[in-house]
Design goal:
Helix content is 46%, strand content 18%. It has 335 residues and is of the alpha/beta class. The protein folds into 2 domains: 5-147 and 310-334, 3-Layer(aba) Sandwich (Rossmann fold), CATH 3.40.50.10950; 156-295, Rossmann fold (3-Layer(aba) Sandwich). The strands form 2 sheets. The protein has a 6-stranded mixed sheet with strand order 8-7-9-6-5-10, with helices on both faces. It has a 5-stranded parallel sheet with strand order 3-2-1-4-11, with helices on both faces. Helix 8 links the parallel strand 7 and strand 8.
Length: 335
């Protein structure tokens, strides 16, 4: 995708229109979002903009306060100086997990874990982290501190992929799942990913989800244990949420292109018009979103982590302030 300077400006405005639209929803009831990596310049820029726009109530965790000037409305905490909170979080974690207070305190002194405990204890409505930490650290902290939602057996994730134009349609949004969390889901887990992603997409964007479970085969064009896994996942997803449209196994072109769908899956309620794509494993999901982002010029918001009792979201370590701003708004909408 080649863009002139002015073409890029128009494309950027279109992308930001989606976030501006979501921001208007958030402003009605601003949520407290904690950012445990408050010493990062991109985080600092993002939270200042969030506070100035009054879309969320940012809480930043820093190693040393006063090293950066935050905007009015940004709450700044130094976990090492928060002795009462450290005691409360450590004792609460030790009781819940039947571990020693010393081990619990060591965990709670880590900014990401401290932030997760703020969410667990109701002192924040959600957390955005990961710009300076591996996804595994963010997920582990959320799993231990916040815990899984009652209906969830695993954490999973999705990306909001936003295109300036796709297939002749301007301002197009697709959802990709799972691209960051579950490496090799079985049929039950894949079904759960599909159902949870569909419901969160509907809640976040307000559209009717049409969920395609992707494979290298369409409707039996190839037989393999991998395609059988996807077919079984579709059956389970339909039983879990009969009100949602699911179909599979479908190849990507059959899921997205009406002309191809008419040939390969003419009776499918989803083929040719899918807006939620569920990938069979983390390899395919992660590769697909990065190729889409860098080759097709799409904007990728996420990964939006799902399956926890309260929203905790991960950032790419290459995230810029505008990306963090968008993820924070999505986190607030899901809180």
């Amino acid at each position: 995708m080649t863009l002139t300077k002015y073409g890029f400006l128009v494309y950027y405005i279109i992308i930001m229109d989606l976030i501006a639209e979501l921001a208007e929803k958030v402003k009605k009831n601003p949520k407290r979002i904690v950012f445990p990596e408050g010493d990062n310049p991109e985080i600092q820029s993002a939270v200042n903009n969030l506070a100035k726009d009054r879309v969320v109530k940012p809480i930043v965790l820093v190693k040393t306060s006063g090293s950066f000037s935050f905007a009015e409305g940004v709450s700044v905490l130094e976990p090492e100086k928060e002795q009462e909170r450290l005691k409360k979080f450590s004792e609460g974690y030790a009781r819940k997990h039947q571990t020693s207070p010393k081990v619990a305190e060591k965990l709670c002194r880590r900014n990401i874990f401290f932030g997760a405990m703020m969410v667990a204890e109701g002192e924040a409505d959600g957390m955005v982290a990961g710009i300076d930490s591996a996804t595994a650290i963010v997920l582990q902290s959320a799993a231990l501190a916040v815990g899984l939602a009652p209906q969830s057996s695993i954490p999973s994730s999705f990306f909001v992929m936003h295109f300036g134009e796709l297939f002749g349609e301007k301002d197009k949004v697709l959802i990709y799942a799972d691209c960051a969390a579950t490496i090799e889901p079985d049929s039950q887990q894949l079904a759960e990913i599909g159902v949870t992603t569909a419901r969160n997409s509907q809640r976040l964007l307000g559209f009717e989800p049409r969920v395609a479970f992707l494979s290298f085969s369409t409707k039996g064009s190839a037989n393999h244990t991998r395609t059988e896994k996807v077919v079984k996942a579709v059956e389970i997803a339909r039983s879990m949420a009969p009100e949602i449209m699911f179909d599979g196994e479908l190849q990507a072109d059959a899921a997205l292109i009406p002309r191809v769908a008419n040939k390969k899956a003419p009776d499918s309620p989803v083929a040719g018009k899918a807006n939620v794509l569920v990938f069979p494993d983390l390899d395919s999901g992660n590769i697909a979103y990065k190729l889409t982002q860098y080759l097709a010029g799409a904007s990728a918001y996420g990964p939006i982590i799902q399956g926890f009792r309260r929203p905790v979201n991960d950032l790419s370590r290459g995230a810029k302030a505008k990306d963090i701003y968008g993820v924070a708004i999505i986190t607030a909408l899901l809180a």
